[in-house]
Amino acid sequence: MKKAVICCTCLLLLTGCWDRTELKKLGIVMGIAVDKDPESGEFIVSTQMLRPEALSTQSPSTEKPVEKVVTTGKTIFEAIRKSNLEFDRKGFYAHNKVILIGEDLAKEGLLPVLDFFQRGKEIRGYVFVCIAKNAQAREILESDTGGIEPIPALRLKDMIEDTKFQLKATKINLLNFYKESIGSGIEPVVGVLEFDKDKFSKKHVKLSGGAVFNKDKLIGYLNERQTIGYRWCKSEVESGAVSIPSPVNDDRYESVEVKKSDTTIKPTVKGNDISFTINVEGEGIITEQEVMTSLEDNTRKLEHMKKTEEKMNKQIEKYIKLAIEKSQKEFHSDIFGFGRALNKEEPKVWNQVKNDWNERFSEVPYTVNVHFKINSTGLMRGPFQAKN
Question: Residue ranges of the Spore germination GerAC-like C-terminal domain (predicted)?
Fold first, then answer.
């Protein structure tokens, strides 16, 4: 009898689905774009919601796979809640992949904009944050060009993730943006999405360069070469193709694929003087060679590899210096984490200089040491050549 009473009591207590929401009643959000209305000053929030039936493989549909919902409000939360007035699904944000912010809004500061997303329970910290350059964020999010993936937000997410295979663009997620913007000794750099001006037929979206921030405010952009240097300095190079002039003929090029890299920033304090040493270690292989020069013996291969290493060292150093010069002279923003490295090695010194660090950073001297190793020419006997 006692067992029966206990079982009945447990059944009454374990009714855990009383507050469930049916899946068919949810609007699964894949991407969000936030702009600002210059006239009213209100936020314009564009939400991209999934249409599951349009993606069905059993009954293919001609409908678009997503539905666009655009609302306005004095706050992000107000604008999002307004979507219920014109859309028949409640937004579900746990699967959101990207948050796009308009350029003008980013210049005013991102922390007030991102507060709702960071404070809410549904938005994940790993969602990507990007800046829409020279365009409205909603235009970038709505663009249907640039890939095979039918859902625009997923296509943008895949492009951002693929920065690990190249060096000319950067990325950051919501959590890391918060860490770097409210922390000390480092400023954030955010991924940039823009329309490719070279694509005349359609508005083709591309990922390029990086958006530089001072705390949470956008202050400028790194171009692609400066972004390459930034990523080497930040030790954010996983892979990538690097083109360098051939050691045999400067009018021809070789391609080197980066296989491994690591960068350390070491501060040196002498009295009131602070300097930094940037040590870059890298490895890669030669994957392409335009010059038709035979490398038939090991001695010639080793000589060629050594010359290629020297050129790689110079090019990496050049790009790092371009990025640091831009950051020091124009932005006055420590995007590389020099201050963070100083805080780690010399916390007492850091406490003395942290209040005006970005100004001190603008004048701080540094040295760049690059040691890149070519492990293979990727060739057995040199390039293929036509016989006479």
Answer: 208-378
Taking CA 35 as the corner, what is the angle to CA 31 and CA 40, rounded to the nearest 5 degrees?
140
> What 3 state SS string does 251-292 have?
CCEEEEEEEEEEEEEEEEEECCEEEEEEEEEEEEEEEEECCC
Q: pLDDT digit of tens for each residue in the chain (388 aa)?
A: 555 555 555 555 555 554 454 556 678 899 999 999 999 999 999 999 887 765 555 555 567 778 899 999 999 999 988 887 877 778 888 889 999 999 999 999 999 999 888 887 678 889 999 999 999 999 999 887 667 888 899 999 999 999 999 999 999 999 999 999 998 999 999 999 999 876 555 678 999 999 999 999 999 999 999 999 999 999 999 999 999 998 888 788 899 999 999 999 999 999 889 999 999 999 999 888 877 666 666 777 788 889 999 999 999 999 999 999 999 999 999 999 999 999 999 999 999 999 999 999 999 999 999 999 998 776 545 555 555 5
- Contact assessment for residue 383 and residue 293, using Cβ atoms and an 8 Å cutoff: yes
Cβ atoms 127, 97 nearer than 8 A: yes
- In which residue ranges of the chain is CATH 3.30.300.210 found? 224-388
In angstroms, the CA 244 to CA 280 distance is: 18
Q: What CATH number should be reported for the domain whose range is 224-388?
A: 3.30.300.210
Q: Is 55 exposed, middle or buried (0-12, 13-18, 19+ CB in 10 A)?
A: middle
Q: Which long-range contacts (CB under 8 A, 24 or more apart) does 20-28 make?
A: 21/90, 25/89, 25/90, 26/89, 26/90, 26/91, 26/92, 27/67, 27/69, 27/83, 27/87, 27/89, 27/90, 27/91, 27/92, 28/52, 28/92, 28/95
CA-based nearest residue to 46, from 67, 27, 64, 63: 67
Residue 6: CB atoms within 10 Å:
10
User: Residue 304: which residues within 8 A CB-CB, separation 6 or more?
Assistant: 247, 248, 293, 295, 377
Residues 6+ apart with CB under 8 A from 134: 103, 194, 195
